[in-house]
Amino acid sequence: MPLPRTPGTALRQRLAELRGPQVPPKALDARALAALAANPGCKRRAILDGAGVNKTALASALGAPSGFGQSQFALVRGNTFEARVKADGGAELLRLVHEKLDPGAVPPTKAEVPDLTATGPEGRTARTALALRDAAQAGARGTGGWTLLDHPMLALDVAGSPAFLEPDAVVVHPDGGWTVVEIKSFPMLDGSADPAKVGAAARQAAVYVLALEEVAARLTQDGTVPKPTVNHRVLLVCPKDFSNLPAASAVDVRKQRAVTGRQLSRLTRIEDIADTLPEGTCFAPDLPTAELTAAVESVPAEYAPECLSACELAFHCRGRSRAQGAVTSLGRSVRAELGALTTVDDVLAAAHGHSGDPADPTVAALRRAAALRAEALNTQSVSLPSPELPSPELPSPEGAACR
């Protein structure tokens, strides 16, 4: 007689069935979590990310491949720069942390670099928690030094499913505090970088801060160490100008951390979404296109133009949104202004007086805009006759000769 499955085991089995029995799961990273938090109403992305579906392969199988993602050249360049920053036991990286975030601490002449290797993401997560605990305990006793955790593994609960995250580095200060380090390959020119790229890096680092706060809370509950301080100022390391030399800047991510935490808490739990799907739903990319399309369309999506820079399925969802005439394809700000009018047909009908309550401010504004447009289009410019200009008098050859 088979043993009954626990709720956690049942959920993992259900997600494996959705992903496809022979399809390995794709890890959910901080960049995907930041994009998911930016659009918490999209149940489609929530269930696909929670099940570990490779959305790039899925988009190609649906006939709507997306160019979203990093180029291979950017990945190689980023890995080369990161290796340079972490060379010699992270000496240059620790110097930057000391200079930008903790100049009052003892200079990092040497640092501990614990071995974080273990079997599987769960094992690496546990090993990271142990290293953080040991360093925090030493800091609480006043005997701590600098500790560099190179590519630690953190776990964050997302809609009832664990997400394993791997920041570039976490530095433990001599007082036991924890700081997230983000290493990026875009340049820092004259001490400043592209604001859009810095904002994306800050949102990604905010996810790591949330995960570190969960680790700190667990250590406090265990009573093994006083609650460590998780620094809300992260260190962003980029190439200086167009060289391969590192430059750094402290970035305050309190705002991004608050927004991301609030949005992640609003996500519908993955098991609740899975329970609403038809029996036998599967997102394996080797399925027939019609069957795969029906499976994807069985999960509601919340498309917005911002998805084009954050989700691999954006082209597919955009096509469906346009075909349905959804106003969200025009942008979230437009959708917010239109209230209960969710389709373009509803908007046009209300604007032309075919439907809608005239007392509704949205309907009244649309009808006023339609009247102004009609007035502008019906106004004909008056064609005035061209004035008759006297023809120029050409001088005779004789007159010209006389002058």
Number of strands: 8
Q: What value does the average pLDDT take?
A: 84
What structural category arises from helix and sheet content? alpha/beta
Helix-strand string: HHHHHHEHEEEEEHEEHHHHHHHH
Count of individual helical segments: 16
Strand order of the largest sheet: 1-2-5-6-7-8
Which blocks of ≥5 consecutive residues have pLDDT under 50?
Answer: 1-7, 380-384, 391-403
Distance between the termini: 124 Å
Helix content: 40-55%
Principal-axes shape call: globular
Give the biggest sheet.
6 strands, mixed
Strand content: 5-15%
Task: Characterize the structure shown.
This protein is an alpha/beta fold and 403 residues long. The protein has 16 helices and eight strands. It has helices at 7-19, 30-38, 43-50, 55-61, 72-85, 87-101, 120-141, 195-222, 254-266, 270-275, 289-297, 314-323, 332-338, 344-351, 361-378, 397-402; strands at residues 111-112, 146-150, 154-158, 161-165, 169-172, 178-183, 233-239, 246-252. Strands 1-2-5-6-7-8 form a six-stranded mixed sheet, sandwiched between helices. Strands 3-4 form a two-stranded antiparallel sheet. Helix 2 packs across helix 8, helix 2 packs across helix 9 (254-266) and helix 14 (344-351) crosses helix 15. The longest helix is centred in the middle third of the chain and has 28 residues, at 195-222. The chain is globular. The N and C termini lie far apart (124 Å).
